[in-house]
Amino acid sequence: MDRQNQKLFEQNYVKFREHIYWYIYKKTGKKELAEDLTADTFIKLFEHPEVMRDRDENGIKAWLFTVSRNKLYDSYRKKSVSKGKVDVEDEIFEIIASDDVDYIGELISEENSKQLIQSFSVLSVEEKEILELRYKEEMKFSEIGEIVGKKEGAVKMLLYRAMEKLKEELEGKI
């Protein structure tokens, strides 16, 4: 790798390492696995310097999330390790209860949090992931589409339907 590519790699590593690490850690709950998969993700970036040259910052970020997601799924397949629904629902609850989503965050109180967590059972894994990428990782629809392998319009529709499911599920409960 030439000097310019090495510098680009270092800049992207510094910029995105924590995002990728926390994305994986929240999915696995295992520090060592998150560290290993984060390292594997950046090794792949190192092996493909054209990604850093040919894409803008958002494109690189989307590429890294796609690779980390694939590494995570490979890890699940190899080790038959998966998290239960409750953990995924807790993760989504944290996203929606965060300051990033004011319109839902205002609805949440201590006594309502359990209702909200239970309401996530109506969402598919894909809908939960799209919610996370949109509201926690603050990604654009086009970036999410690249990660999950769908067109931008399909991502928007999935997000809209997920929010409608949540609204319907929560109606009268919160």
Descriptive notes:
By secondary structure, the protein is an all-alpha fold. The chain has two domains: 3-79, RNA polymerase sigma factor, region 2, helix turn helix motif (Rna Polymerase Sigma Factor, Chain: A, Orthogonal Bundle); 85-170, Arc Repressor Mutant, subunit A. It has ten helices and no strands. It has helices spanning 3-28, 31-47, 49-54, 57-79, 85-97, 102-105, 113-119, 125-136, 141-148, 152-170. It is elongated and about 60 Å long. Mean pLDDT is 80; it is low at 81-91 and 93-108. GO terms for molecular function: DNA binding; sigma factor activity.
Short structural summary:
With 174 residues, the chain is mostly helical.
Radius of gyration: 17 Å
Distance between termini? 56 Å
Report mean pLDDT, rounded to a whole number: 80
Report on the biggest sheet. none
Order of helices and strands: HHHHHHHHHH
Family: Belongs to the sigma-70 factor family. ECF subfamily.
Keywords: DNA-binding, Sigma factor, Transcription, Transcription regulation
GO molecular function: DNA binding; sigma factor activity
GO biological process, one term: DNA-templated transcription initiation
